[in-house]
Amino acid sequence: MSESNVSGAAAPPVLTGSAREIPKATLVQLRLPVPPTGQALIKSAYVRQLRLRPDEAHAVRDHLRRADQAATEVSDELIDLLAQYEQQSQPSLLPPPSAFVDVPVPALKAFGDALVEVRRQRAVRPAADRAEATAGAMPAAAEGLAQQDVRSALVAVRGLAANTRATPLGMLNLERLEMVPAGLERGELIATIPLAPLEETAVSHKEWSVRSKEFTSIVTDSLETVSETGVTDNTELSQSTTSQAQHSNQFNVTATVTGGIPVINGSAQSGFSSQDAKSQSATDSTKHATSLTRKASSRAKQEHKITISTTTVTGSEETSTRVLKNPSQVSAMRVDYFSLMRKWRVRLYRHALRLTYDLVIPEPGAGLRRMHKELADLKGQLGPFQFSLPHSEITDAILPGETQPHHRVLAERYGAVVPDPPTAPSAPQFSVGAPQQEEGWHIFTPDPLEVPEGYRIKKLNLWFATTSKKDVLFSFKVLGTPLYIQDQTQGEYGPMELTSGAYGGFMLYATGKVYISFEMINNRNTTIRVASEIEPIPTQPDPDPTRPAHSDRVRDKWRSDVWNLLRDAAQTQYYERQQDIATKAAALQEQIEQVDTLTLRREEGEEIMKGVLRFLLGPDFAFMPPAVVDAFAKAGVDLEHGIGFDENGLGLDATAWATVREHEDVVRFINQAIEWENVVTFLYSYVWDVPQSWNFIRRLRHPDAGRQAFLRSGSARVVLTVRKGWEEDWVRFAEGGFKSAPTTPDSQYLTIAREIAAYDDRNYPGIPPANPGRSAVRLEEAVYATSRDVLGKTAGPVSIKVDSSKDFLVGAQVVIDSADRTDPADGRAVQESQIVTAVPDATRITVGRLDRAHDGSVTPFAVLQPGTRGALIAEWNEYTPSSGTDIEIGSDLGSGV
């Protein structure tokens, strides 16, 4: 650099050893004319969406012939192909998407337009005719079906036009942002001390030093097996730039970007032209990089960063007093203090170009959400214990479909031991001999009748026998009843039903201890017998007195006891299950959250690959085709655990081996043709998922912000980066319906793939400067020369006179001329790449041949030997604050003094 600082001294050297680099990329979307071939999946999906009815294909052909269009657009071969998609066909017998590789889009559109017209004509037919045409359907249903067919055809035709208008191809410019310390510059004015002539003043100078050593650990995890760790000073611009870029991506209101390229910006392009597309993307990339570093510079100035760091702070303070004196007797003096700022040289290099294939996939995180659904299901099972078994279900009856009493079925269900219903107890009774009282009166009360708990007396019968002395009559009375036998000599009496109405319902429904007292006069040899009948005390009597009660206290108590036992057993089972569920939930929660960053990114990359392949290769693709699965099964592979081919032999016959190898060839090609480590993913909001899942998705949480964004994405735009050297093979594969079907040699997509591959080989020469006011295009670590020769095409070696041949190497590839120069003969760029065969002297180089003519008589053309860093497309300076200060006596502050 030749710039000078404010004081006029030479600029300090650029500290290239302290350079910091940030990888970035610029994505350029291409809009191209509709290609005549290819786009097999789009065409196949369009035909499926038409939902052709039986014989509709031939009806459309007849309509086109009447309109005199069949000969020009829709061929009989296409009609026969479309007829296979009529709904009478079996889905498994439909042609593959590759059948539409060579079918022109205008022919499919013409067929769709004619189908719309045919269906419209059918929709206006009388209802009776429509009913007949739909095999007996009701007229109203037939009319609705016809209108739906018209709408389906219209939507399909419009969708074909929209989907074939845009191309999934694009180009990704791989770039590098390099920042190098380039010295110090005077910054803002901090303080000014004015001194009058001969004035002397004491300046108290307090100097303190706080030494803070802060180290931030930066870990970069790739999708390979490398983890790079570095320690950087937290004030460097490179880290601020990286933080700013990540901050911008994280809070992008449209999408979250993930993938192998840390910083990426996009450039939309309406057409493909080597020079125009590159110039526009270079300008966009420079604006993005400039904005990025300026934001980072502002971020560094504000010193607003969030880091996880280790900080050690030590400090000291020193105070001194300085005496400043103005020695002049006539002039005033001023002492100015300035801040010092660190200067950074920022360069943007472009070092490679990749062909990209763009598509949008739904629910990229669907597979990873499954664990969260399992966790939500487990947590949903946690809660308070509830026992909903009604008492009425407890019965000793054998219900239909059961082989034992139902209460035992319940006991086995809940793991409890329950008693059988109690049997009816024996009715209480007593037979006693009363004490004799031959002359006189007394009352006798025998031991009471013990009525069992839950029962009551239903009937009470009395028998007694007694005698008296000669010429003395006896009397016998049951107290509490009208039963009174008197003035008898002897006799046997009974049975007498004391509970009957005749005796006032004595002791009817009595419970517990039932005492019966007898009044006797002049008795001897008296025996008394009382027998009872008991019944359960009803709690819900039947309206019909002749029928047993619906429920009684005994069975209710049994039901209550059984219910309590069942509930206790069920509660024990429930808490055991709750503990097991809680353990499983905790283990699953740990499995979800306690995962390192590298594994998270690996899993997300695998899910992206899975989603891309599913929606890229179409409905006929299977990760493991049934034929391969059958071959694995025949070989004795453990399909559940994925264990096989670990014995001495493979166990595959020749046919199975060929099937497996064919599948492996597809797998190998897909993994090699795409740089899966550099796939860029734009995550879109959950609102692009089905509305039924919104409530679940927006509640997903994960401690890793990247994983949370991935889980909550409703769809994702995936930019596949085609590996260098695989451009043509990938385009043939993609545009051939992903079945390796051939495409025509002049396919527009194939031409673009070749052009991008060739342009990448030239390492971006001839790109105009992104900042026209700055220096011209140059390459870092490259050899650059110009020539004023006028050269024509040659088949053999040719010598080119250049301004300097220094550092040109024999055998190296050089790029001659610029891409924006065209040959008037064919309109193509004259830029070409050749091999240096000799370096004769200091002003000449020799190349093997020249394929184009070059004229440097008016404007010298470039001869460039590419370097390793790539094309320098922009350069600018940025500043960050430092802790230093600068002092000057009477500095010029721009006041004109």
Give a brief outline of the structure.
By secondary structure, the chain is of the alpha+beta class. It is built from 18 helices and 31 strands.
Keywords:
single chain; 897 residues; alpha+beta; seven-stranded antiparallel sheet; 30% strand; disordered N terminus
Give a written overview of the molecule.
With 897 residues, this protein is α+β, with helices and mostly antiparallel strands. It is built from 18 helices and 31 strands. The strands form seven sheets. Strands 1, 2, 5, 6, 8, 20, 21, 22 and 31 form a nine-stranded mixed beta sheet that branches. Strands 9, 10, 12, 13, 14, 15 and 17 form a seven-stranded antiparallel beta sheet that branches. A six-stranded antiparallel beta sheet has the order 23-30-26-27-28-25, with no helix packed on it. Residues 1-8, 133-138, 217-235, 243-255, 268-275, 302-308, 741-746 and 762-778 have low confidence and may be disordered.
Q: Helical percent range?
A: 25-40%
Mean pLDDT: 76
Biggest sheet layout: 9 strands, mixed
Distance between the termini: 31 Å
Q: By helix and strand content, what is the structural category?
A: alpha+beta
The total beta strand count reads 31
Instruction: Classify the beta-strand content into a percent band.
Output: 25-35%
Shape by Cα distribution: elongated
Counting DSSP H or I runs of 4 or more residues, the number of helices is 18
Radius of gyration: 50 Å
Oligomer: single chain
Contiguous runs where pLDDT drops below 50 for at least 5 residues: 1-8, 133-138, 217-235, 243-255, 268-275, 302-308, 741-746, 762-778
